[in-house]
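Hello, quick one for you while I still have it in my head. A protein chain has come my way and I'm curious about its shape. I'm sending you its amino acid sequence along with the backbone structure tokens. I'd be grateful if you could look everything over and explain what you see. Here's the protein in full, and shout if anything looks odd to you:
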Amino acid sequence: MATAGQARSWARGALRGIGDSLYTPFAGPDGDEIDWDAYRELVRYCVADLQHPMLWCTSGVGEFWSLTLDERKRLLELAIDVGRAANPGLVVQACTTAASVKDCLELTRHAQQAGADIAYIQTPVMETHGGEGVLRFFAHIAERTDIALGMFNSPSSGYVLTAAESARIYEQIPAVCATKEGAFRPRNSKALHDLAPGLVIWECDLTVYRAGWLRAGIVCPAQLGTVGYLHETPQRRIVTEYWDLVYNDKLIEAMDFARESGMDRFEADMGSWFTCYPGRPDYFTHWGAAFKHAAAVLGLPIGGYPHSRPPQALLPDAAKRQIEGAYRRLGLVGKR
């Protein structure tokens, strides 16, 4: 675990490779319980079977907004215990965002005590007074903890930091060492790098990696929080092979591989069910049931309640059929 004082030197070397954002398997009536055994199996699968070097816990894919503080703490603890039993060097990233700064502080302190390597704070999802308010939020946490901190700039918050606002947070809070830029705004990420060249940036618009941004030092050699485990299997590790090519600056080979393996077509075949609810098409979401249905298609455990907790809607049958068809076409599951 990196302390606040070590954060920036630590991040430049430690944040590498695929980081899996874990879903939460629910069980019981109306999903009121968590299937802890299914969660353990998911962690083991990502770390031991796929050999992914990082985990991203209790964030958007994990439906943090529907979890209690105790549930979020236990999910993180299990990920650390099970994951590091398989790989002692596993990097564990904890998302500790919450509507209340006090709840965020409690979760961040817990992440520090539990042994997480870094805590990411998503731009608060309610009543955010711009970058000034986010800065105050981060300062409140940083003054009371001693752990590396990251920003998580997602449009699901309802407010996305500008490059100047993020750079100001980085400048004033030494514990802040990384950012997950989840708004598909590569121009903003480039501007942020120009303002804060020491900040470790992950850009969710993956085309920038094909454009040589890693070679240029704008982005880092890591997927800080994705669902790579839903895009490959231990028998066919196509995502790992693709990113190994990118990280080794073999961009032409990587693009050829993505086309020939079916990776590029798979993205189109899947559609936008992971991040878009048709009834609100202008809103970026993390549709938990879509991630879990994809996991079920691959044979991963999702618990006895396959839906998301409220306020998310039930995943329609059309989405399930499209997801299933995409996996069959890619060849990760057998054809009917």
Summary: The chain has one domain: 4-246. DSSP finds 13 helices and ten strands in the chain.
